[in-house]
């Protein structure tokens, strides 16, 4: 459609154009021919560009799809909680790395028997925790609560029962320095009582068994307050058919020696 307009006032930025029925239109001066002045008549062709409309629509929809894929196609997943190990007085719980999608993390909390036990420190790095001080042969329920900017997700409740004193399957031993024959005897004894030996000091290591207080593994066990005991402790557990106190079997506790001359009758 061709429209003829009369130039009214010319300004550096905006030019006033008059329609045949004396209506005023403000029009960008930069779009008009040069050297126009008041009284000039300009012809402007007006038409709808459907091709560019379609291209702009397609571009906009593509942008929407990219935003949806980046921020709306997935959402934070509920944590999946598992029991890694249980003993008479403790449990080790673990979970997969948390999935946040495009959300930001607020907190990851552990609940015990429906009550908040505390927040997990460094939840993006830590995927397990040890809970101690539990009662013997007692049932507990645990679940995780993940709070994000996209909402709150809770894991299924995990029910765990601590072991009886006669259940030795939760004993998880890391070994240190000891003679080869002692290590062989220890391995057989551990198998007989249903316990297990693992490589390296881990979060579920319950006892560090060694005959010498040295080495990197021993240092880590001491640093993590894991009981460091002599192999005789495992023998005592086997002979008594129950978990035995470690007090008399600590590595730094003197073994009872032969009676001195003064003690002989």
TrEMBL record:
Pfam families linked: BRCT (PF00533), CHS5_N (PF16892), fn3_2 (PF16893)
Protein name: Chitin biosynthesis protein
Single biological process term from Gene Ontology: Golgi to plasma membrane transport
GO cellular component entries: exomer complex; trans-Golgi network
Family annotation (InterPro entries): BRCT_dom, BRCT_dom_sf, Chs5_N, CHS_Export/Cell_Fusion_Reg, Fn3_2, FN3_dom, FN3_sf, Ig-like_fold
Fibronectin type-III domain: residues covered: 75-169
Transmembrane segments: none
SUPFAM superfamilies: BRCT domain, Fibronectin type III
Gene3D superfamilies: 6.20.120.50, BRCT domain, Immunoglobulins
Domain named BRCT: residues: 163-251
Molecular function (Gene Ontology), one example: protein dimerization activity
